[in-house]
Amino acid sequence: MNLEQSLVHVTEKAAIACYPWIGKKNSVAADKAAVDAMRNEFSTIAIDGTIVIGEGERDEAPMLYIGEKVGTGKGESYDIAVDPLEGTNLCANNLPNSVSVLALAPKGTLLHAPDTYMDKIAVGPKIGNSVSLENSVHENLSIVAQKLGKPISEVRVIMLKRDRHDKLANEITKIGAQITVIPDGDVFGAVSTLWGKNDVLLGIGAAPEGVLAAAALRPLNGYMEGKLKFRNEDEHRRAISYGLSDPEKLLRINDLVKTNNSIFVATGVTDGDYLKGVKIEKGLVYTNSVLINKKGYKFIENIVKN
After folding, report:
1. What is the bridge-based pairing of β-strands 48-53 and 77-86?
2. What pTM was estimated for this model as a whole?
3. Segments in the chain forming alpha helices (H)
4. Cβ pair 101, 81 in contact under 8 A
5. What would the pLDDT profile of 122-165 be if each residue is shown by its tens digit?
6. Range 3-108+261-305 classified under CATH 3.30.930.10
């Protein structure tokens, strides 16, 4: 089994472990099931992996914490970012688009992003680095429209539904672009720009998810920028301790992921816009995953015995 196949199995096992908790209103139990399953499956892979984005600090998370070693320890060295269950509340309430997701890249190439917020812009390869958080919203949407050869009124913006985005949403509406709001899951909000489902992701979300999204975008020449938004001094100090000498600086995609050799894998937990959720019927388990690397992307449907 090659590395990519092994990584798909990791997110598959995590997604399957969430299945009993779909719609059970217990996001903590669902997340724990995903974490335990992901960690167990990682232990079978011949890599020397280090979690650089995980469930938190060691004292906050007993498994898949930042700095934890995974794999057998006998293979090549990798940085690993994980979100065993992105959209814990989506899973707990049986809502669409909860997924298990991870990214892997050579050691030292993934940003050690602290658990804080990040202002983000993400676009697909047709637009590339012509947009920037240093531009106004109107400038960015005009560039997107020009690059795609369509009017601003047909530009599709995806963003998290948050009160903090009310001003941004009003500005986009006045400009005339289309807005899709999602309750959670801005990793796939960014990744969807690769497939033309949306043209641009805007807004503030979690910083770790920003790195995960960048690991999917960079191999296929998508583009992303982020700027950390700290909620308190402790988060600012933590960023410095992670090696960010200038935590306030604009982070371009090459800062988020320093290689195009990253691998991104996700498996659907609940049915979503891009991935079907886990299904168990007549003793068989059906999963739907996506694998993204510099060779391209492919959707993978697997059937295993329960």
Report:
1. parallel
2. 0.96
3. 3-18, 27-42, 88-92, 137-148, 166-175, 186-191, 207-217, 233-241, 253-256
4. no
5. 999 999 999 999 999 999 999 999 999 999 999 999 999 999 99
6. no
